[in-house]
Predict the 3D structure of the following.
Amino acid sequence: MATEILMPALSPTMEEGTLAKWLVKEGDTVSAGDILAEIETDKATMEFEAVDEGTLGKILVPAGTDGVKVNTPIAVLVEDGEDAEAAASAAKAPAPASAATDSTPAPAPATPKAAAPAPEPDVPEGTEMKSTTVREALRDAMAEEMRRDGTVFLMGEEVAEYQGAYKISQGLLDEFGSKRVIDTPITEHGFAGLGVGAAFGGLRPIVEFMTFNFAMQAMDQIVNSAAKTLYMSGGQMGCPMVFRGPNGAAARVAAQHSQDYAAWYAHIPGLKVVQPYSAADAKGLLKTAIRDPNPVIFLENEILYGRSFDVPVLEDFTLPFGKARIWREGTDVTIVSFGIGMTYALEAAEALAKDGISAEVIDLRTLRPLDTATVIESVKKTNRCVTVEEGFPVCSIGNHISAVLMQEAFDWLDAPVINCTGKDVPMPYAANLEKLALVTTKEVIDAAKSVTYR
Amino acid sequence: MATRKTPQKSNTSKEELLTFYREMLLIRRFEEKAGQLYGMGLIGGFCHLYIGQEAVVVGLEAATEEGDKRITSYRDHGHMLACGMDPKGVMAELTGREGGYSKGKGGSMHMFSKEKHFYGGHGIVGAQVPIGAGLAFADKYQENGRVTFVYFGDGAANQGQVAETYNMAELWDLPVIFVIENNQYAMGTAVKRATKSPDFWERGAAFGIKGEAVDGMDVLAVKAAGEKAVAHCRAGKGPYILEIMTYRYRGHSMSDPAKYRSREEVQKIREERDAIEHVRDLLLTGKHATEDELKEIDKQIKGVVNEAAEFAKESPEPALDELWTDIYADTAPQNA
């Protein structure tokens, strides 16, 4: 019986990939464990091994095809004497199969393009824009700042020779060498503290945490040493450095790898906290973070790394902290979010528009300093507010915004503020439960309808 | 505690002995005064005195050059005085006044001096160890030939981040000297109740770091060990560990009655091993100074300490708007 070979998922967040190269050809005998192909994910090129035995009857997706969705049949394995063509036509492989016959690459773009924001004054009108992934934008920001300032260096697990666990630091070792792009042992508490000392000593470290879940081990150095020393020294000893890395849920990595720490860090005086959504903001804000004379927590998101956005082509594009961005103007309800929460906020706004509800969507971009003025101004117009974040509900950023609105815009509110958050549970592993634990677009839509009494 | 070795007289001089005497005495008198001011309610919170351990910092400072860095824990007054910080500024910080090194915002445990390359004053046990390695990392990066002294106690030596730091310091050949001030007690826990591996310096071997134990009641032995360690670091050979066997006469902090050891134990060390008495003996038996000359020094030191105490009492409390400054280097507090 013929066996379909399917495009594999090679990372927790992989949705599609490039079939870079076949290492077997039609008619070859294949044993379990043989390397069949090389597949490029957005993070790495991986070898793909056979699980079953048989003869490679038909290749359905030719080498060089981009955007092959996970679980698409890419080849058919037949048993001796079986008709390869018949087996192949039986395989349900529509789009990529046609690509196999006419050798045209599949037309699907490598990454879905996110909605463009409402025009706003971050860049001069007429600036050329270039579609860039968040991943590339972060790398470009670091590279530009490292070219500009010799005291800037990057350290963390797998940042150098491996090119970054999530490929954020790709190419940096080649350009800047091992003095400035430094692989550390797996020792978060130690290297976070070492980074703090290097900052006291006159350098500008960028400390990458493979994920912010692991920064829990380094919390004492971040909070007690990095954030408080300027104050405790009466202004003598500052700590100009960036702690960065992916934060929040990725996909199916369960409770210990899926936490959003935005509210934790935003709680601490002495830290600045940035959580960008778009590639342009990732770039402009990371450059600002590296130049900032204070410790900056820069919270990225693994799922956003592969998303493309327009990034202005400018010699030196930086964005100020403490300035929210209005992505979408509206009149009926204000939806406030940041980071990956913006995905739900924008999807909800789109759906609400179809129901005749005009939502204004605000991306906070930085959580400390927090641009409450923009939120208050918007609420004075819409009289209603919904906040969206993936973090836990208790003592969340949404809670804080609710409190600020109650104090500063009480008379303008026509409904209680609703906080849409992740659920108050450790992240479960099971796919269906994980989906339930995360905030959803539907919850945001329902909240918006509730505050507008629809 | 290691027994005292006979100091090699050829390695010292009258001037050096007098300097050591003055510097150690300054620390002791300063700490006694701090204890007194604490009793009067002029110093608050935690206050950890350095009395008994003076030879450690005085000996090691004698091995430094201008630009070398130092960082330590919360038992930090001695380190600050030994590296040349102004006793007035230190004492005024203890009393929480505007004239203190941190404008009264840090207190006993959190003081810094960029000018004297003193990087704190850290209140979390062991946290200064990776930070100190980071200072050495910055020196190596900047190729400036400087060495960093990282001081920590026998208590901190059991912290995980110390092992993490040893590993990185040796991996990257950082010019850092790890100084374990083994005063025998981590607060109230004697070394042997905290570890079955009580020779802390030997732990460096697991990471490839050389080191040695040193008699910390002999300032000349400390200086000699410091010079050896500094030479190792400046030659680019990476870190070095000095475990300096010392003793604190007072409790862990002012509120510690020290019931975990006998009065006789403390008394015996004070009488037989005291580092200041040791130098005093060397000065007198070597005929480098007379009793009267030493009395004159005592008087001078007392004057310096009294002056510092007066300054610390008279300096005003910080202005109320200091509450909101120095949180960020560039901007006002939250929501600027």
Q: What stands out?
A: Chain A touches chain B through 47 residues (CB under 8 Å).
